[in-house]
Amino acid sequence: MKRLAILTSGGDAPGMNAAIRAITLRALQEDIEVIGVIGGYNGLLSQEYIQLTNATVDDIIGLGGTILKSARCRQMKEEHGPLLAAKALDAMDVDALIVIGGDGSFRGCSAILNHWQGNIIGVPGTIDNDINGTDQTIGFWTAVDTAVECIDKIRDTANAFERLFIVEVMGRDCGFIAVESAVASGAEHIICKEIISNESEFLENLVQGLNSAITAHRTTSYVIVVAENSLSKTAQELSHYLEQHTNTDCKVAILGYLQRGGSPVASDRVLATKLGVAAINTVLSRNSGVMVGTEHDQISYTPFSQTSYKNTSNQALIRRLNDLNFNLS
Ligand code: ADP
Fold first, then answer.
1. Which helix (H) or strand (E) holds 105?
2. C-alpha span between 234 and 231 (Å, rounded)
3. Is this model's pTM higher than 0.85 or not?
4. Which residue, by CA, sits nearest to atom 13 of ligand 1?
5. pLDDT computed for residue 311 by the predictor
């Protein structure tokens, strides 16, 4: 093992830099040369990269975003994209590639492995926590912290006006940010795909629950945390619906991209460091085609083909809500 490339791909997440640092420092310990591809798979196809040294990764552990930039690359999904990526890796004379990203990026890794003999290891970096094979992804807890900070502020104004507030958080079809931020901010309700089997019944129950809480004056304000894409209604449409059915003023706050930014919290820096080191150890053991993760505090290895969250991890989320005895209506 002489030369290793790192790239960050898909949505950026706080803690990606901490992972780049850990991978680089651990590789340099083993006298492996490290290059950082700039701009995800686009940069790989155009062979745009920088040398990563002790000095390059000094002081980046607390930086949000990614010093290597990230991107979505359409060409990788086209027929010849993965073959061209494999040729680029050969031209760059690397023996191994470590990709920090989400399950889309790992599909890209699998596609390259159809044409390339080197080792490819994945490191889960996405705020959504929507990857199977790891209890947490790098960036998740920072995004939850940011959402909680916002919801706390929204609560102040919701209380002042005795209002209903809908706060939409990110999650890309996955309710983990909604669940943890709702729990941590004491929100009254959570809406996420995983807990809805029949949307109209779900909304009827929600209205019923809100009306009885309002009548009983249970709290001064009601905060509903909703994961994006949970319902066929937009947050604004849901707000109109709830105003009509509860006779209460309802406001909407969409947190959006601000959840991606910021300095990573300590748990994301630690996770990134742990997984970065594990990625190099995995490369050294000549393993390939897997994502390193952490399950029950142990390093785990999941083949790229099994990293997609869809329909596999939702039971974990429901168990979590049941453990907390959270109102599922
Ligand atoms: P994430 O990695 O955060 O899930 P995306 O789903 O946008 O983000 O994927 C990131 C990139 O991975 C895409 O822009 C594309 O270049 C590559 N990719 C995604 N799916 C595939 C696929 N099926 N085959 C090859 N490359 C893919």
1. helix 103-113
2. 7
3. yes
4. 72
5. 53
